[in-house]
Fold this sequence. Notes:
The protein contains one helix and eight strands. It is mostly beta strands.
Amino acid sequence: MGGKAFDPARTDVTTRLGDIEAWRLIADIHHPVHLHLVGFRVLSRGGKAPLPHDAGLKDTISLRPGEAAEIITRFDGYPGRYLFHCHNAEHEDMGMMANLEVI
């Protein structure tokens, strides 16, 4: 993510234990974005209300080409490294993953 090859030793994003994070995800092509070890809620898609299948706690959101979505989560499970990535196998191979460090 961000055009850099994935490095499992690198921290790409840092947040604090208990912090609430709201993210805006934007897809160029189809991306099922997956967040490890924490669930999130979908706040909106394309600036509109979430779709019926967005209800409840999620760990993956499927974004279609050109689609944007806002999600919110709280990193309160434990301090350490969390991984987020695209679930398309070829995208994982291309390094579309990032490490989030909870301190």
